[in-house]
């Protein structure tokens, strides 16, 4: 089973959800607006993809931080604290499947890692 985390109205999350439906892959969706990410989950993800990849530095939430706040994000602990306070800053979607963690949407990566049942 695929677990997908994100924000329902995020265009990248929509692409991922549409892709899963198109490829008939069952999933459970966790909306950060209804179920905020927890520290334990963020640490699990950071062990698999690195905290640097989890922090979406291209989004508006990151850009709204002051330069000092951005500069303070320098390790896993500081990244997790800012992500807990700003779930919308987590790179989306986060997909968990078979002990893998995938970030964002990439058709080729999905095709090679998320196998549809035959």
UniProtKB/TrEMBL annotation:
InterPro entries xrefs: Arsenate_reductase-like, Thioredoxin-like_sf, Tscrpt_reg_Spx/MgsR
Q: Mind telling me which NCBIfam families this protein's record contains?
A: arsC_related (TIGR01617)
Which family is this protein grouped under?
Belongs to the ArsC family.
Query: What's this protein's name?
Result: Arsenate reductase
Query: What organism does this protein naturally occur in?
Result: Sphingobacterium pedocola
Give the CDD domains listed for this entry: ArsC_Yffb
For this protein, the record's PROSITE patterns field holds:
ARSC
């Amino acid at each position: 089973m695929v677990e997908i985390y994100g924000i329902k109205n995020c265009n990248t999350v929509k692409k991922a959800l549409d892709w899963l439906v198109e490829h008939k892959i069952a999933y459970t969706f966790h909306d950060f607006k209804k179920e905020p990410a927890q520290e334990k989950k963020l640490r699990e993800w950071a062990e698999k993809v690195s905290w640097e990849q989890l922090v979406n530095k291209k989004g508006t939430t990151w850009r709204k931080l002051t330069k000092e706040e951005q500069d303070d994000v320098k390790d896993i602990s500081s990244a997790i604290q800012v992500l807990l306070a700003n779930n919308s800053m987590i790179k989306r979607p986060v997909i968990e499947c078979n002990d893998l963690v995938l970030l964002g949407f990439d058709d080729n990566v999905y095709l090679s890692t998320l196998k549809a049942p035959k």
